[in-house]
Amino acid sequence: MGHRKAAATAVATSSFVNGHFPRGRGLVVLLSSIAGFLLTAVWSAQFVDSTIGDNVANTLLGHDAKDTPIQGIAAGIAFAFVSGIAGTFTACDIAAFGAVAPMLGSTGTRWSQHAATLEPVGWLAVGMIPVSALYGVLVGIIGTRMPQFATAANQPGTLSSRGIQSLLVFGVVGLVMVYLGLAALGLVRDPFRRVSQRFPNAPIVFMGVLIGGFLIGRPFGLFRRMFRDAAESHNPLYGAAASTLQSVATSSSWPYCSSRRRTSPAAVCSGGSPRSRAGSPSSPRSP
Description:
Low-confidence stretches: 259-287
Radius of gyration: 20 Å
Shape: globular
Helix content: 55-70%
Structural class: mainly alpha
Strand content: under 5%
Oligomer: single chain
Number of strands: 0
Number of helices: 14
Mean pLDDT: 75
Distance between the termini: 32 Å
Order of helices and strands: HHHHHHHHHHHHHH
Largest sheet: none
């Protein structure tokens, strides 16, 4: 009875923290850490980038995406969108979808589930597009002098400038996501506790900013090829359009994927289903 009463009075502070904290939170952290480590051990970047990514891009473009020159801005825009779709299954996107999925709709009919995901995905775009576009502008202005375009191979015991850029970007993004995960468990303070009272979509917009940052550090070969074409053109508008399309294309499948799931990770942790929580007074308010 006491547990039910505590659950009934749980208060959601933001889209990230619904107020329903699992028992044995230390064990959850430990198991999550072990699972993450094991995933890094079995994850095959070669399979995801080449077997899946390259084949998807080759099929959609109708030619070899890596060896065929990009002829003009129109071809570059098409290449950006296709390479974004091809990069959907890279590691950072899988991690981002795992974090975003509990925030998207999952109840009702299939069509209502699709509709329910469009608004939060739109708020993701609000944070994602400015970051992607700004980086594309910098690519067009600075050109191939940026660290991402370094072609030197990593030597044993050293990192190329491209590797350092990737390490720094994803290191920061990873630390932020770890903190947000601890906040979702109630182990640290929710950083969006106050701002969500006035702007309930702020956490989703912030997640969009993190996803936009993926472009800055991502080592996916097709992305580097597109950015090199934009850098060599010295056209900031082309760089902005191409990088924005890549981000949008990469996340374009998320509404479909989220509508196919039946139970969110947040529901599993809290011991209930999204449907059972939707009607409780402690549920996060709609965006």
